[in-house]
Specification:
It is built from 9 helices and 15 strands. By secondary structure, the chain is of the alpha/beta class. The chain has 3 domains: 68 residues, Orthogonal Bundle (Arc Repressor Mutant, subunit A), CATH 1.10.10.10; 98 residues, Periplasmic binding protein-like II (D-Maltodextrin-Binding Protein, domain 2, 3-Layer(aba) Sandwich), CATH 3.40.190.10; 106 residues, D-Maltodextrin-Binding Protein, domain 2 (3-Layer(aba) Sandwich).
Length: 296
């Protein structure tokens, strides 16, 4: 069977967009042409790759497997073409990023605004998410996450130096209820917890003592996936919450929050920009890496 590389590229784009119309718009062709290409590919392979309804497009098991195999190669080809194209001009195109919601320094206004100003031909598309997934299979150029959860086969560039997590509360809560002397005492306190997504257990609070790491499964009275809400609740005196020090810094500086259990909160490797190891790095991504290294 002679492979149809164009059909594979069309399939990957439909899978990325989860839409025939959006894929057609990006390629500048008709929706009918996209549909016919996918149909011929499925007939050639003898198996359905996509499930279509009037409202959505999703991958079958065979489609998921095919996408996982072809997406890296297609991404490499796109990067090679962009690298060649860049010889005639500046980095350009859409730069898709999946960024952790707590990567405060990367998501800061000045960093991204300066990058956008320096690269007017790059369209930046950022999805703020704490879900773990394959950025290549999902069509992202790069991601930003804590170094400890990045796959070993990725290239990782430090966004900032070491980070640490802190437990914090409002002075009013401290004065009314006191604060724990040890993480083990958190069970006796009102806690505000975080979870990355619905139906996922609340995040365990991680500490260290005498060089040994341990975690505490607090029983939060309030749980959310929104760090901004956690901070508002803590400032209002609703309880003790836990997160990245960088997230709390403005409120600590103003005295609206105070840190507790600080001696049990060690520093660790922080956030990294990561992307697949490729021989040809897309100019738009190279521009971001260079900007990051200058901005630090």
């Amino acid at each position: 069977m002679e492979p149809d590389f164009n059909a594979l590229a069309v399939f990957a784009l439909v899978a990325e967009e989860r839409s025939f119309r959006a894929a057609a718009d990006r390629m500048g062709i008709t929706r009918s042409a996209v549909s016919q290409t996918i149909r011929r590919l499925e007939e050639t392979l003898g198996i359905a790759l996509l499930q279509r309804t009037t409202r959505s497009v999703s991958l079958t098991e065979a489609g998921e497997r095919l996408l996982a195999e072809v997406a890296p190669a297609i991404a490499d080809m796109r990067a090679a073409i962009e690298a060649t194209d860049n010889l005639r001009g500046r980095p350009r195109g859409q730069l898709r990023l999946a960024v952790s919601s707590i990567a405060e320094r990367f998501l800061s206004g000045p960093f991204l605004a300066a990058f956008a100003e320096a690269n007017p031909e790059i369209q930046i598309d950022i999805t703020v998410t704490d879900e773990e997934f394959d950025i290549v299979a999902e069509g992202y150029d790069a991601g930003v996450r804590l170094g400890e959860v990045i796959e070993q086969d990725m290239v990782a560039v430090s966004v900032a130096g070491e980070e640490r997590q802190l437990a914090v509360c409002a002075p009013a809560y401290r004065d009314r209820f006191g604060v724990p002397a040890h993480p083990g005492e958190l069970a006796g306190h009102r806690c505000i917890g975080w979870r990355p997504a619905p139906k996922v257990p609340p995040y365990r609070w991680e500490f260290a003592e005498d060089g040994k790491e341990f975690s505490v499964a607090v029983a939060p009275e309030i749980t959310t996936n929104d760090m901004a809400l956690m901070i508002k609740l803590a400032v209002a005196g609703a309880g003790i919450t836990f997160g990245m020090e960088e997230s709390f810094r403005p409120w600590i500086a103003r005295g609206e929050l105070v840190s507790v259990l600080e001696k049990y909160c060690p520093r660790f490797a922080g956030f990294y920009l990561y992307y697949p190891s490729r021989r040809n790095l897309a100019p738009k991504l190279r521009a971001l890496v260079d900007h990051l290294q200058r901005f630090r």
